[in-house]
Design a protein that fits this description.
Blueprint: H1 4-12, H2 22-41, E1 48-54, E2 63-70, E3 78-85, H3 104-114, E4 123-125, H4 129-148, E5 156-162, H5 170-186, E6 189-195, E7 203-205, E8 207-208, E9 210-219, H6 234-242, E10 254-255, E11 258-259, E12 264-270, E13 282-291, H7 296-324, E14 335-338, H8 339-346, H9 360-375, E15 381-391, E16 394-395, H10 398-408, E17 416-418, H11 436-442, H12 454-460, E18 464-466, E19 471-472, E20 480-482, H13 483-499
Parallel strand pairs: 3-5, 3-6, 6-18, 7-17, 14-15
Antiparallel strand pairs: 1-2, 2-5, 4-20, 8-16, 9-13, 9-15, 10-11, 12-13, 19-20
């Protein structure tokens, strides 16, 4: 069998960029590697079961690799789940070094010419080496150790090697059905899920941050551009709202000594179909919003408050300008709605159509705009809604937090403990989801363009931990791994900690 570093380099050499056939190729490589490991161990399916799980409704026919080990020490229904994703982002950022992005040894040589200050004996480069093929290698190393010591532990060790984490998390979402199946068939007690996604410092995260896309659609008042004071330009209103979103502390959530990054505006445009001399009637934006404990209702209410503040300022400024000009500005109404509130008043909306946009979220918004146009609403308004995807936040119970702190206190290495993994991860789909009806009612495309099996998620929910490899610059051409901690000490730490549960 390959050593851990050789295994890592082999996996990096497979260009498993998200939404390419490389995802299938690396799944087959991991599957065959585990089959070889099982063959050499002499174990049967009874104690070491590995299979390829097909994704439902996936045009590429991508697959997850799932392995289940069952300890021989005695019977236990306790189970620990290990998680890692094997897809990567693309390599456009490598520029002239693109040909070496999947070859750590060659890339290291060229990095000496480009970024000599980053090249060290304990550092390796390559696309996906940090995010997160080193984490996959760590999990396989732990799996090997559990196989070698199969008679000294009891219970179940379940390994999920999933695709599509860098996309829509289809791999993780599909794996939930296997977790539900094996839990029901064996009456398992899921102790926790341990993800080995990357970290930028030696740290353990007892949960994962949540993410939601906030959509904002503005309907203004149309008028001729030569008489602009007689209407309200939707672009003007939307920009006024957006100016209050990024770097707004009100939209940053704090928990103990941790905080979310402020929202980021991801897309802005109007919905004008062609040039004309009328002011814009409809404009939209969507915003990346991160959260810890805030619920859907809390988040929507915050954005409504921001929008209301911006609208008041727009109206005040317009009145002030027109008063100076000796004109009167008579605005009958200007409301800010959530999508749920809006459909309670005007009826449900489900008339989605495809308009050929590369981003299906724009199809959803144009469909919404066309429906709104048919309602003949005579007043301007702001509509706040959700767009796919949605990543729930997850935080572990105090029991596992206490045990982890007790364990790392015994180590000779300083490792910090935090509540939330600060980047989006597949752990989100193991923490349980509340406010289900509110989520469905306020998300465009739910049930047609996007769906989460909330019932299954809640059935398999468990405490979650990210204890990942160490490195820097994920998703950049300087992506790199700190080797000694990541590949040689971390697997031992994880194995020893997990074995304290599987007794």
């Amino acid at each position: 069998m390959l050593g851990i570093k050789e295994l890592l380099f082999r996996m990096v050499s497979i260009p498993s960029v998200n939404s390419t056939v490389g995802e299938i190729e690396i799944a087959k490589f991991i599957y065959n590697y585990l089959l070889e490991l099982r063959s050499l161990s002499g174990l049967s399916d009874e104690n070491f079961f590995v299979f390829l799980q097909d994704l439902a409704d996936d045009d590429l026919n991508r697959k997850n690799v799932i392995a289940v080990l069952k300890g021989r020490k005695g019977y236990s229904s306790n189970a620990v789940v290990f998680l890692g994703h094997f897809d990567t982002v693309d390599i456009e950022d490598y520029g002239s070094l693109r040909d070496f992005a999947f070859d750590p040894q060659s890339l290291r040589i060229h990095m000496k010419q480009v970024c000599p200050e980053l090249v060290r004996d304990n550092i390796e480069f390559g696309r996906g080496i940090l995010d997160m093929k080193a984490g996959i290698a760590v999990n396989i190393e732990v799996l090997k150790n559990l196989v070698e010591n199969i008679n000294s532990w009891s219970g179940y060790a379940i390994f999920l090697f999933v695709c599509d984490e860098e996309g829509d998390s289809k791999g993780m979402i599909n794996s939930l059905y296997f977790l539900e199946k094996i839990k029901n068939e064996n009456s398992l007690n899921f102790l926790f899920c341990l993800n080995t996604d990357y970290t930028v410092k030696k740290a353990i995260y007892l949960g994962s941050i949540g993410k939601v896309l906030i959509g904002i659609l503005v309907k203004g008042l149309e008028t001729h551009v030569g008489q602009s004071l007689e209407g309200l330009n939707s672009n003007y209103i939307l920009c006024s709202i957006l100016s209050k979103i990024e770097d707004n502390e009100y939209l940053i959530e704090h928990f103990e000594n941790e905080f979310t990054n402020p929202p980021s505006v991801m897309k802005v445009r109007d919905l004008r179909e062609s040039y004309n001399v009328k002011t814009n009637l409809y404009s939209f934006a969507y915003i990346n919003h991160l959260f810890f404990n805030d619920g859907i209702a809390d988040i929507i209410e915050k954005y409504k408050n921001v929008a209301n503040e911006a609208v008041k300022e727009v109206v005040f400024k317009r009145k002030k300008v027109m008063k100076k000009l000796g004109m009167n500005f008579d605005l009958l109404d200007f409301k800010v709605y959530s999508l749920g509130e809006f459909i309670d008043i005007y009826g449900n909306f489900d008339s989605y159509a495809s308009y050929g946009f590369g981003d299906y979220r724009e199809d959803l918004i144009v469909s919404l705009k066309n429906w709104l146009s048919g309602l003949k609403i005579d007043h301007p308004f702001v509509l706040i809604f959700l767009l796919p995807p949605y990543y729930p936040s997850v935080n572990s119970m105090n029991e596992i937090k206490t045990k982890i702190k007790e364990y790392i206190d015994r180590l000779d290495e300083k490792i910090e403990v935090y509540n939330y993994f600060p980047y989006i991860s597949d752990l989100s789909f193991l923490g349980g989801i509340g406010e289900c009806n509110l989520l469905k009612k306020n998300m465009l495309g739910w049930g047609k363009y996007y769906y989460l099996d909330v019932e299954t998620i809640n059935k398999v929910s468990m405490p979650c931990v990210d204890w990942g490899v160490l490195g820097f610059d994920a998703h950049r051409s300087t992506e790199r791994l700190v080797v000694d901690y990541s590949l040689y000490r971390l697997p031992r730490y994880i194995k020893d900690f997990v074995m304290s549960y599987l007794v």
